[in-house]
Amino acid sequence: MRRADRLFRIVTLLGGATVMTARRLAELLEVSERTIYRDVADLVASGTPIDGEAGIGYRLRRDYRLPPLHFSEDELSALAVGLRMVGGWADPALRRAAELALARIDAVMPAARRSLREAPVIVPAFHVSPAMVAPLASLRQAMAGAQKVRIDYVRADGESSQRVLWPLGMVFWGNSWTLAAWCELRDDFRSFRLDRIGGIDILAERFDASRGRRLQDYIDAVQCD
Fold it and tell me: CA 136, CA 143: separation in Å to the nearest integer?
């Protein structure tokens, strides 16, 4: 990663609501803590209002705003493709958000640039079935709030069961959405096709995905298999 890109990411990460330690920043950016200390010092020297306290961490002052972003043609194409994928494969709420994002980005681009809507890349909607899309919004809500869900699930052989899950992430492969989750019944990771979920309830109880039960642990387990 170029140093300029790393400095920009530090400012972006510190713009959130939480204080971040040098160790956490170093983990996210895959550099040493000494590098983070040096980068933060340079940012402060250049006028970036970063507040920090030893043993606590860093935070960007709330009244600071990043300058407007400028995208290259390739970056604009990447945004257009990604947003079109969301529009073609997601639930109605996320599809609408993608359309609005595409319109907002398109509106602020200089007139001399090619419109995002005219980008020569076609992303077909694979006519994802309503049964596949139906649980998406509920699962996104549950993942955002780290809330458990109860689902009625029908396996490929027709056997049905009820499960309490910790929804960790969703993957779109082939032409179907799959939920990666920690299953309390099996006390292990399990995958669930969304079109086989007959019903879903978001529970008030929250989960704390500790080491061994995180999405990254699920990914590591799948890669080992």
Answer: 11
